[in-house]
Amino acid sequence: MSSASRKSFQQLHRRLDSVQNSDKRRSRAASSARQLAVSHDDAYTYALRVAYLHYLLQPKTKRKQWVPAPKPPPRTHTSNIGDLVKEFIPGNSSNVKLPHGFRGHLEKRIERVIMGAEKLPGYNDAAVKKTFAQAYTAFTEQGFRKNVDKERKVEPLVLIFYSAATKACGLGHERSDDSWKLLVDRHVALFVRLLTNILRDQGHDRDKPELLSRLNTLENKLLTNDQNLFIDTGQSSGNTIEVVVPLSYDVKDMPMVQAVARIFGLSHSDVQSHIDAQRHQNWTEEAALKDLKAYQHRLNSNASGALRSQDFDVDEAYQEWKRAEAPFLSQMMLEILTARPELARRSTTVSMSFDKALPASPSSAYAEDKVYSELGRTLSNPDRSSMYGIDNVLSLGSMSLDDTSSIRTIDEANYTFIPPEPREFLKVIARYALEFDAMHGDEGEQTSLFSKQSMDLLTELCVWWRIPQFTRLVVFLEVAARRFTDTLFTVIDLDNAFDLVKIPPPEVKKPPHIYLFNETLATIDRSKWTITDYVVYQQTLYTLNDALLRDLYDTLMHCYEPKPPTVGPAVHVLTTHIFSDPSFSRKEEDVQAFARQLESGLQEQAALVYRGFLDAKVPQSQQDWNFSHVVELGASVVKLCERTQKRYKKNPEVMGVNPFTVLVETMFPNFEDDAHELIRKIMQVAQERGEELPLQDGFDLYKELVEIRRIHRSSLGRPFTFDVEELLVDFVWRWIQNAEARAEEFVEEAIKQDPFQVRGNGPGHISLDSERHSHSVIDMFQLFHQTADQVFRLEWDNDVHHARFMTALSKIFANSIARYCEIVDQRFVREMDTPRPNEKEAAAVAQTTQGRFMQYAKEAWNTKEKIEPFQFYPESLVKLNNIEWAMQELDKLEKSMNVDACADILEKVDGPRRPIKRPAKYVFTIKIVEAEDIKACDPNGTSDPYVVLVDEYQKRLHKTRIVMRTLNPRWDESVDVTVSGPLNVVATIWDYDTFGDHDFVGRTSLKLDPIHFSDYLPREFWLDLDTQGRILLRVSMEGERDDIQFYFGKAFRHLKRTERDMVRKITDKLSRHINASLSYEALRSLLGRNLASQVNSFFKRSSTIPQITDAEVENALQSLFTYFNENFATMKETLTEATMVAVMTRLWKEVLMAIEALLVPPLSEKPSNQRPLNQRELDVVYKWLQLLFDFFNARDEDGEVLGVPAEVLRSPKYHELASLNFFYFDSTENLIRTSERMAAATAQRQQQQLQGQMSSNRLSAPATLGSSLGAHHAGPAFASMGTIRRGKSIMMSRNLGTMRRAKEEKRKEAQADPSDDMILRILRMRPEAAGYLKERHRQKERMAAAAAAAMIVKQSVSQGWNSAGGGFGRGGVPRR
């Protein structure tokens, strides 16, 4: 030891002696008036005394010594199985007999063991199976079976099995080799286990418990090789001897003393020297007992040295604490006497029980000695069990203490282990312990205020210094508060301190002798506290409140920083531990004052942060400003707001102030004003320079402003400073204009790059329907979706703007689709009209007139031979697939753009369309329906007509398909013509010639004037050709509208008409054979095959004419079916299922038209030269119709439809043909009467409809235009004299849903409104009906004129022709 450390040790030793021998002690009661200055040395010495006393009084440690017994000799094998069985399974008791039928179950289980099917472990060994097989042979003998069934004993089974096991295991071993005998024991044990398992499986474990018990014992003995097989061996394995370990008085064996040394920073050697110097004379168990006796005297006398009544506010609390102290003191004295029994012999011999408390106020020395002699006698009671497990008998004599005079003296407290001011000493020691644990504790693991060693020490100090639980906890909190105010503690540590004093400690088996130890400050009634503790606790709360509010304010001043400190712990401690405590009261004016101060500080911080953003993101010079600076400034503001809002999401307000709201209220008005000014300046500078700002910069700016506005609205609840959408809407319109400029070029380039091939994985791959359209249409709709998504992603917060954006985009899409359809249709027509190889050969031959006639002869001859199928190009069919797929995608696009909602929004904003507003353009839809009695231009007496429609400027508007070999062609093709005023159109019919120039057939014209179509109802015109015959045109008009529904309807109409034209082009290639197979020639050929039979029957005078069989009728169409199948097989390789059905449906329509042409002439007011069919011919035609229906329906063996659905085949035309059979052979008079009834019913319905229209204020134009057409125009003729119905408008075709509904309504109208058209067509073949046809013609003219006059009256009455003023008429059309 160095000289310096030796000198320090000597000084500390002298200080300990002076403290020990001092006779002057300050009273405990004086501590409330003044506080004792406790030095480091004083705190250390009293802590060391208690820690050393704890070591002395701890229960004596005992250790066990093992004395082994001699080991018995191990057995080798079972010597006598018979004796073992008789001992364990005696057969003289009915309780150990086997149940009835047990043998059968046993044999089955043995069979399972032999076959290896036993599930129990240990039975699948080969040796075990061999032993069980040997025993099975013995068990199945008839004599043994009878004996077992009769006796039901276990012994024979075990003995027989033992014999079998011995025989089986002993095979192959020498006589002197006994190693196999242990295996016999194991096999027998397995057999016994099997018996037990069978009994349990049969449910005999309840009625045979004794048998099962003995079997288990036998099994265990057979499996044990190191002891005898008898039950009671009497052998022992050894003894255990307990030895008491004596105290070593070494610091290394004193954990609590080591804790004191660590807390006060002393080495073990220093502490050891202090203990060695004091343990023999002063720090003894006897001194501790004297302290307790003196404390008891002072407690009973209400003297100093213990808590007194004046320390409590309520006397009941003092009395309750005093009563609780008595048993604690008795227990502590008992622990001392247990550790040192000889102290009990010095007391007089009196009797008392262990649990009796000490007397309340002893009056004499005799009474005092009596108490401790009773303790001694209790310890001497041989029947008592020690609480520390000491079982030895203590014989105590009288207990005589040396310093009895000091015990009886109560003038002043003179203790060895109790300091003069225990509370102050405890506070100082707790502070040292807290400092030590804070410096040396593991931050990741330590969650409590004190370590376990420190807490044990402080608890022991409270026990011996008799400090109550509430004082102990208040001292802990007071120490923690002092460290927090000294900034040595964090808020988390302070929260842990509150948890320590408010959360109950874990329950222990032996709680310490402390009053209310299992209680906390939250559960102990405050009236039970001492006055000092309550005052100190209340003052601590107020001190912590001020400190925490300062800490909270300082923390919140950093809340807008990127990584601010958290305020959660401080708020938690304030709200949970301080504000909710009944000892603390808050003043409302203080709360409001702090909130105002905090809000003011946050406003300053928010303004400071925004100024930093402004300086960092926006340049000083206005010439350098651009949208990116506003975007970056807004992004910084939004990021800070989102971060702040997220941080305070669960608890928005802190002490009545919302940091997020303060931030928004301070920063947003400044930003909005600055952003508006910045944007205005940037746009002004760009305009002065003649530059256009980048579109993406405008979009990025919009997103940032929208996010800021969202936060503004949700937080402030007042309007944004400026209209963001109105300020930046031009950027969207510029982008839409750019998109419009790129769209048409993109479509043309996509078509140019597209090979129009099926998208597959190879030649052997069968393509799905989703792979049968090409890339051009996919790319086009990807462009559409991307264009619309660009606007959607903006999330434009102005519904009117958004609806107008969608309208503009729909116009772009409609124009792009129209261009796509135009180019694709042109290519499709070129490909379909390209001569095939066989046609090229014919063209080479037919260069002269002679060759042309030879070609006609060859074609006539080829009609009798097999016709080769048309060679369809795959790229042509893919184009048709593209159009069909485009309609599906356009319908999806229409739904995604929410077209109807956009239209509704604009209708509400713009209001109803005023009739005085003149549409900029009009759309006329001209349908070229049919022609009749045209000029024949071919040598065969027919023509191959098609129509070319041009305007007055010779611009081609439309060209129809070619209808082969007919003078009454039907085209049913439509074209849209957009006009801004009147327009003359010319329709020219040409005859198609494969070789040479096409022949002129005839020409007519029609003037399209919007004023004549102001009611927007369709008109039908029979126009006479300038040569011979006439043509039927159906015309309707719509105003060109800047309407999203209109544009989508226009796009759908383009697609639908393109698809229809393509399908017709395909069916035209097949219709020639259809017309040839369903012609008069084919019918006459079929009926003329049996001419010889008919002649023979005539000469034989037979009364019957040979009938044509169904097979012959079907065979007549066999070449047509074969032709269809070959073409369908080619088309199915490329066309999708939907497109294939569309082609077949159109072919079915061609079939119906061909059959209709066989039955009746076209509808007209003139008689026809066509002769009616006879009954045989009519039957054949209807059989053909049924055969063709079944062919197109194409049901398989299971009834599944593989072709066109039956409801599609049963079209209105099909029903007309089916009903024709009922009137075909009726008399002319009956037909006329039926027609008159139907005409009267039709007139009545028209009148009702007219009245309904008048009442609903619906406008209708005259049905005839009269003299407004030229003199060469034949007015509305026979076909236009039926009910005037509104035609297919663009608005009815704006999506697939409206198109399906319109088609269904048309079907329902055809079924619900029967017409007499078929009767009139039959009457055309009756010469006697010519007068009725003319009369009916005049009647319909009168009906149409009356309807037109009624509409004129209605228009003039409801609106007045001059109300619109100016030069416009009803419906916004120009007035003449």
Can I get a quick summary?
By secondary structure, the protein is α+β, with helices and mostly antiparallel strands. It has 45 helices and 10 strands. Strands 6-3-10-9 form a 4-stranded antiparallel beta sheet, covered by helices on one side. It has a 4-stranded antiparallel beta sheet with strand order 5-4-7-8, with no helix packed on it. Strands 1-2 form a two-stranded antiparallel ribbon.
Please characterize this protein's 3D structure.
With 1376 residues, the protein is an alpha+beta fold. It has 45 helices and ten strands. Strands 6-3-10-9 form a four-stranded antiparallel β-sheet, with helices on one face. A hairpin with a 7-residue loop joins strand 7 (983-991) and strand 8. Helix 4 (102-115) packs across helix 8 (181-201), helix 7 runs antiparallel to helix 8 and helix 33 (1044-1077) packs antiparallel against helix 37. Mean pLDDT is 79; it is low at 1-34, 226-236, 347-410, 860-864, 1256-1287 and 1358-1376.
